[in-house]
What does this fold into?
Amino acid sequence: MRKAFVITSAIVLAVVLTQFYLAGVGAFSRPATADAWDGHRIGAMAIMAVVLLNTVVAALARADGRTIAFAALPIGLVILQFVLNAMSNGLGGSQDDRTGMPLYFVALHAVNGLVVMGAAATGLRNARRFASGAAAGSATEAQRAGAA
Amino acid sequence: MLLVLDLLLVVVAGGLWVAAWQLRGATAGAAVLIAAVLTTAARVTVVALLGGAGWWFVPDRLVTVVPLTLLSGVVGVAMVRRRTPPVPVMIAAAYVAVAGIAMQFLVGYPVTVGAVAAVFGPGVAALLVWRLSARTARVAVVATTAVALLAAGVTAAVGSRLPDRLDHNTHGADSGHAAHGGSAAAPGVSIADLRGPSRAPTRKFTLTARAATVTLPSGAKVDAWTFDGRLPGPELRVTQGDMVEVTLRNELPGIGVTLHWHGYDVPAGEDGVAGVTQDAVPPGGTFTYRFEAKDVGSYWYHSHEMSSEAVRKGLYGTLVVTPDRTEPAETDITLPVHRFDTGAMILGGSDRRETRDVPAGRRVRLRLVNTDNNAHRVAVGGTPYTVSAIDGRDLNAPTVLTAATTLRLPAGGRYDVVFTMPAGAVHVMVDGRESDGLLLGTGAMPAHPAGTDLDITRYGTPAPGPFGRYDKDYTLVLDRLVRFLDGVPSYAYTVNGGVYPDIPPLMVDRGDAVRTTVVNRGTESHPMHLHGHHVLVLSRNGRPVTGSPLWLDTFDVLPGEVWQVAFRADNPGIWLDHCHNLPHAKQGMVLHVAYRGVTSPFTVGRRTPNHPE
It folds into this structure.
């Protein structure tokens, strides 16, 4: 089960990387159509699904609480991604017209995306350490990253 | 604004409570805990304010806010006594805070027992696992919870898949109005028979849909789907009393097309909605629309097959009905605003500032039409003016406006602007850009002072309305929730918690006075468009309309707003009622107004050519 946890953690990281690629597809497609973001939209759902799976696997592998919580962290961060977008729209931004506050808000989406990436990378490191028996190390690692 | 704030607070509170539990006892933990309690207090305030705006905004929030407030109280008391709060309280608070996020994204309004069970079930199961000693009992609890959640998810996913063919005649069953004429036994009239008059046409048009690369006046090129190779499609200008016949020919490569008369209330069979009032016209096919030009005003037409994509790519044009045949004493200019994927924006047919010479003293009528998915802000500088009509219906005694007022034109909406040409120039500015728009007359570019939006509910003079009592009363709560759309999980746009085609139709009988309350719980505006009827706006946010009676076909419900509108069911059919931000419609925000006894032989679904959105 510990090996499975490492594998699912690696899948999470791979899917997050793919999500960055899909964001690139959306951003660089010309003409800039709304449909170009479809892949990125599905990618978000895929991240949620694999992170959920990874969390369950972490629990089944009897990882410690903080490692499990850390495995689940991307779910909250991805929800925040949706929220940033929705808030931008709520402040008056739209697909066609986004300047000022709505723009500055939604731009945090890119930064938070990096945080998701960092969480996924640290999650994989946690899983590998846990698999090699150094579970204690992963806990402090998680704690430090969580506090930051 | 409150809804946006609440969205942020619920997510932040979830994160803080989980962190507070994880960091319990640590130095940082105390700070996080205080932040969590403060965030919860802020959310209580916001939810209370939302409750003041209407009950629809709060039940799902109260489900978690109330227990979280109590738990915060316990935590607060413990902290005042300088003790670390007990672990079970911290865990419970973390769970309830995260459940708040789930309620926000998964449940919305209305709150059902099943939804609450799905959100809190896992927590109860975890409690059981913790308290039960027998290993088999623990396994049983975990397995039951997992299977129940999985079954609910799979059922929702599979149930959302569009069947091969979905007709509109079984509506009665799911809405509890079994008398709807869907069954073979019930006498019904087919929408295919609800066509325009058969007398000889006095005006005939042919519109040919075809792909074309159109060069705009600036030189920019747009790969478009067009009517007759033009952007916008040809303006159809007819006179009141005309019998209009429009033949649609499709020469698009592999794409179906229809003509929907946006705002013009035609007989149902002429409404041009693929899969509801006709089959999409296939490449090489034709369809002939016939209707009588009775209602003077500004309208537009567009394809209602894959409308989200088709309209954006150029399958639109304007329809104008003028009062008489005499040479008009006014300069009458139709100005549809449209934005293409390339970023090009055209007002009328031009993407740069056009100049037109109009002699001073002449009456000018500008017909502003928003053919896009989002609102545009239009300002008229250089002359006082009136908004004489909205959505093709004259306003009662509109007062004079100046450049300091801006007109927020909702998606799909039309405003008629009327003024007498002054000696100087007049500029029509869209979205604050002076570099394009329309410049009328000669002289210096007029000033555009910063303006405030016209509140149409207070504009003009009141007049008595036609409605005394209401035969039907419906509520539509608009929101954005995670739902399965044709089997795929999506952050979809919902009505009463559902997405098309699972939103029960509003059933009406011919002659009914129908009142509808529309509530926007989301963070985006929803320009709601009812086909085949104009609705009279009764109130917005509980405040009755104090200006001219407003008969609209597209009304823009902003986040947090509550609109009450009414219409007379005087045009039998099955009518779409949807958000005219067309991507929202594509992602679920579509329902029908269905007349009892009307059936449709047309279907949507995988094995049909029809994709109305």
